[in-house]
Amino acid sequence: MANSYDVIVIGSGPGGYIAAIRAAQLGLKVAVVEREHLAGICSNWGCIPTKALLRSAEVLHLAEHAKNYGLTLEGKITPDLAAIVKRSRGIAERMNGGVGFLMKKNKVDVIWGEAKLTKPNEIVVAKTTKTIVQPQAPLPKNTLGEGTYTAKHIIIATGARPRALPGIEPDGKLIWTYFEAMNPDRMPKSLLVMGSGAIGIEFASFYRTLGVDVTVVELLPQVMPVEDAEISAFAKKQFDKQGMKIILDAKVTKVEKSADSVTAHVEKKDGSIEKITADRLISAVGVQGNIENLGLEALGVKTDRGCIVIDGYGKTNVPGVYAIGDVAGPPMLAHKAEHEAVICVEKIAGLPNVHPMDKLKIPGCTYCNPQVASVGLTEAKAKAEGRDIRVGRFPFVANGKAIALGEDQGMVKTIFDKKTGELLGAHLVGAEVTELIQGFVVAMNLETTEEDLMHTIFPHPTISETLKESVLDAYGRALNA
Ligand SMILES: Cc1cc2nc3c(=O)[nH]c(=O)nc-3n(C[C@H](O)[C@H](O)[C@H](O)COP(=O)(O)OP(=O)(O)OC[C@H]3O[C@@H](n4cnc5c(N)ncnc54)[C@H](O)[C@@H]3O)c2cc1C
C-alpha cells in the first residue's frame, strides 16, 4: 500500500533522520515526517549554526591578538554582526539541504506536515502550524503531504524546545531564547544570560568575544554545573579574565521591562538582591521535550517530567511505539539522539547483539572559549559512588604544541579505579578539547585500563599528548611536569 511503511519516524533531527537512514540500510520501507525544517534543531538552530557563530568569534579573537604571533593587521577589526549571522544561517540552510539529499539517496519518503498518532501503527499528518523562519533548501522531489499513514513501527523523534521560567517568559524582543540569540536584530551593548549550561555559556562566550558586556547568572555553585568542579573552576577563571561577570549561587527572581532594556532582580545566596540592567536577557534554563499534540495520552504512552519514558532500546510502554533523542530525555545531545536512533532501528530489525544505551559513555562538549569536554564520572560522582580512585592532571602550560599555538591555558584530568585501573572519567578544558575527548571515549568504550593508555603512542607535537601525561600523572609517572 502506498501509505504503508515498515517504519515511520516523526521528526527529522539527528535522531529522526539517522533512524530513517539506518532503517533504509536494513531494507525497511521508511518515511520521515517533518513540520518545520529538515535536519531538526541541531542543524537549523542548535549545534551547527552556533559553532559557525563561535568560529567567527574565534577568528576575531585571533585577529585581535595577531601581534602575539608577529603579525600586524592594519586598521580596526570590527565584527559585522549581520554578516556573521548571515554566514551562520547559510550554513544551516546547507545542512537542511544535505539531509534532503540523504533522504532521497536512501529512498526515504519525506512527508511534510505535522504528525499525530491516532493508533499505535497509524499517524495523521496535518498542515504544519509552524511559521517557517529558517531558509530552506528545496525539499526532495518525492516529498509527500497531508494524509493518513500506517507503519508497523513508529519512532517519535520530535525533539525539544526552550524551557521558560514563570514570569520570565521569552518574548522574542527583550527576553531571548536561543532562536533570537542566534538571529539577533542588532548587536546588544549588554546581555544578561540566565543559566550557564552549554547553551548559555556558548552564547555568553560568543557575545563577550564580540565586545558585549556579559553577565551570567547561575543557580548552582559552579558554571557548567554538570562538569567536574575543578574543570569548571578553571574555565571560570578564564571567563573572568575575559571580563565576563559571573554570579553563582544566584537566581533571577523578577524581570522589569522597559522600552529597550530589562532590569533583572538577582537574588544571591545570602538573600540580597542585585538589580542588573541589560539590553537583552537570554533565557537558557534548559529545554523540554515536544510531547504535546502527538496523541500520546490517548494511546497511553508513558511520559515523565516532559519526556517520553523508554527502555535502553527506545521502546515505550506501548508496543510498536518508540522514542529517541531529546524527546526521550537527557542528556539532550545530538550524538545521543543519533546513537539511540541506530540502537532503536537495529532492535526493530531484529539484529543480534544490539547493545542498550550506556549513558555514562556519552561525551559532553561545550564550545565556549576555552572549550570544555568530558566523559564518564566526575571526581565528585566517583567519590559519591564510594569508588576508590586515582586522579591524574596535566596542564597545557607543560605541552609544547599548546605553547606553540599560543593556547597554553588548559588542563586534562583523568579518574581511574584504584583497584582495577578502569578509566572512570576524563575531563578537559582548553583549545580543541572537543576534538580530543574522543580518544578517551574510545578508550572507555573498549574498557581500557591505565596500562593500555600508557602503552599507546601519541604523536608529537600535539595537544593530545596531555591526555597520556594525565594518565601517567595518575600513577605518579608524568614525564613533562
Ligand atoms: C543552541 C543550541 C546548541 C546546541 N549545541 C549542541 C552541540 O554542540 N552538540 C550537541 O550534541 N547538541 C547540541 N544541541 C542539542 C541538539 O540540538 C539536540 O540534542 C538535537 O537536535 C536533538 O535531536 P532530535 O532528533 O532529538 O530533535 P530535533 O533536532 O529537535 O528535531 C526534532 C524535529 O522534529 C520535528 N517535529 C516536532 N514535532 C513534530 C510533529 N508533530 N510532526 C512533524 N515533525 C515534528 C521538529 O520540527 C524538528 O525538526 C544544541 C541545542 C541548541 C538549542
Compact summary:
The protein contains 14 helices and 24 strands.
How would you describe this structure to a colleague?
- With 481 residues, the chain is of the alpha/beta class.
- The protein folds into three domains: 4-58 and 77-161 and 288-359, 3-Layer(bba) Sandwich (FAD/NAD(P)-binding domain), CATH 3.50.50; 175-285, FAD/NAD(P)-binding domain, CATH 3.50.50; 370-474, FAD/NAD-linked reductase, C-terminal dimerisation domain (Enolase-like, domain 1), CATH 3.30.390.30.
- Helix content is 31%, strand content 24%.
- It has helices at residues 14-25, 40-45, 47-64, 81-105, 178-182, 198-209, 229-241, 296-299, 334-348, 379-384, 400-405, 433-445, 450-454, 465-474; strands at 4-10, 30-34, 109-112, 114-119, 122-126, 147-156, 160-162, 175-176, 190-194, 213-217, 245-247, 251-257, 262-267, 273-278, 280-283, 287-289, 303-304, 307-308, 321-323, 364-366, 372-376, 389-395, 411-417, 423-429.
- The strands form six sheets. Strands 1, 2, 3, 4, 5, 6 and 19 form a seven-stranded mixed sheet that branches.
- The longest helix has 25 residues, at 81-105.
- The radius of gyration is 24 Å and the shape is globular.
- The protein starts with a strand and ends in a 7-residue tail after the last helix.
- The structure holds flavin-adenine dinucleotide (FAD).
- The site of flavin-adenine dinucleotide (FAD) has 37 residues, from helix 1, strand 2, helix 2, helix 3 and strand 4.
- Flavin-adenine dinucleotide is lined by residues 10-16, 33-37, 40-42, 45-47, 50, 114-115, 157-160, 178, 199, 290, 294, 325-327, 332-335, 337.
